[in-house]
Amino acid sequence: MNYGLILLFVGLVTAHLVSQNQTVDAQENNQNSRLEEANSLNEESPAESTAPFNVPFKTYGGTQFWTDHQHTHGYRIQSNWMTNHWRLLDATDVRRAWGTRKQCEVALAGLLSDKKDASEDKEYVILLHGLMRTHQSMRSMEKTLQAADCGTILRFSYASTRNTIGDHAAALQEVLNGLPKDAKISFVAHSMGNIVVRHLLADLKEEGDPNGLLQRCGCMVMLGPPNQGAAIARRLAYTKVFGLVAGKTALQLGPNWQQLVGNLAIPEFPFSIIAGDLSEKNIRNPILGEASDFVVQVEETQLEGHESFTTVPVVHSTLMTNPKVQKLVVEFLQSHKI
C-alpha cells in the first residue's frame, strides 16, 4: 500500500472540510460565547416563549454546524450541534428568530398566522447530501426536479460530520412528521444520506410509526450509496486524523459498520441505485483498487431488492450534479408518481 497516497488523500479530505467550515455564517464564528448564551436560554422557564431580540441577517443555511428539524412553508427550524441552541430561517436563509426550540416555534407560528388557509402539497421529494457535504450540494438536483414537476422539493440539511447517523435519522423523522399527514414522500440521497434514510426506516419499524410514514413512502433513488459500508473509511480510520475530521459517522461507515448495519432497513418501496464506475476511464483510487467512483466501490453500493441498478462514469462528488444522472433520477421519480 502506498502510504504517501493515503496521507495525501487524508490531507485532501481535511482541506475539503476546512473549506466547508470557512463558509459558515457569522453566527458560527464565536462558538464559545454562543454556548454560554444557549445554555442560559435553555435554562429559562418553559413559559418563556418570547424569542430574544433578533436582527435578521443572511446565513449559509447550515454548514456542518446545523441540523434541520422542521420544514414549513419555506421556513426551517434548526439546532446547532455544538451550542445546542436553535434558530428559525426563512426561504432565503435569513435568520428570523433564535433561542430555544420553543421560542423558534412560537416565532414561526406568528409568521404563519396569515398562511393557515394556504394549500398544502401532497407530494414531496426529500434530498439528502452525504458526508462532509451540505444541502447546497443538492441545489442543482433541486432545480432539475422542480423543472420536471416532481413535487415539492426539500433539501434536508444536517451536520454530517458530527453526532451519529441515528441522530441524523431522528432529525429527519421530525421533518417528515411535520409534513401534511397524507402527503406522499420520496427520497433522492447521495452517499451517506442513503444510510440516514435506511436508519430512519429501521427506527420506524422498531419504535413505531404513529404518522404512517412508512405507508406514505413512494420511491427512492440512491446515488453512490455505501450500502455495504465503506472500505475507504476502514482503511483511513487507522490514521486517527480521518475520524477527527470526518467524525463519528465516518467511523460508523468504516470500522464500526458491523455495529451499525443491524440498525438499517432495506426499503420496502421501489428504489433505484446509481453507482459511479470510473474503470471505463481507467481511473482508480489506489486505496480501493476496485471499480469505484473514487470513494465508494461499485460492489459496496449493492442492496438486494432494488428495482434498477445503473452505473455511470462519474466521480462520487459530482453524481448529484451530473446531467445524465439527474435525467435518470427524474425518469425514476416520474415513473412512480401518484
Keywords:
six-stranded parallel beta sheet, 2 domains, Rossmann fold, 338 residues, single chain, 10 helices, alpha/beta, 10 strands, 34% helix
CATH fold name of the largest domain: Rossmann fold
CATH superfamily of the largest domain: Alpha/Beta hydrolase fold, catalytic domain
- Note the main sheet: 6 strands, parallel
User: What is the rounded Rg?
Assistant: 20 Å
How many structural domains can be distinguished in the coordinates?
2
- Classify the secondary structure makeup into a structural class: alpha/beta
Beta-strand share of residues:
15-25%
Q: Report the mean per-residue pLDDT as an integer.
A: 86
First CA to last CA: what distance? 51 Å
The low-confidence runs, each spanning 5 or more residues with pLDDT under 50, are 1-47
Number of DSSP strand runs: 10
Strand order, largest beta sheet: 6-5-7-8-9-10
> Helix and strand succession?
HHEEEEHEHEHEHEHHHEEH
Number of helices: 10
The dominant shape is: globular
What proportion of the residues is helical, as a percent range?
25-40%
The CATH first-level class of the largest domain comes to: Alpha Beta
* CATH architectural grouping of the largest domain: 3-Layer(aba) Sandwich
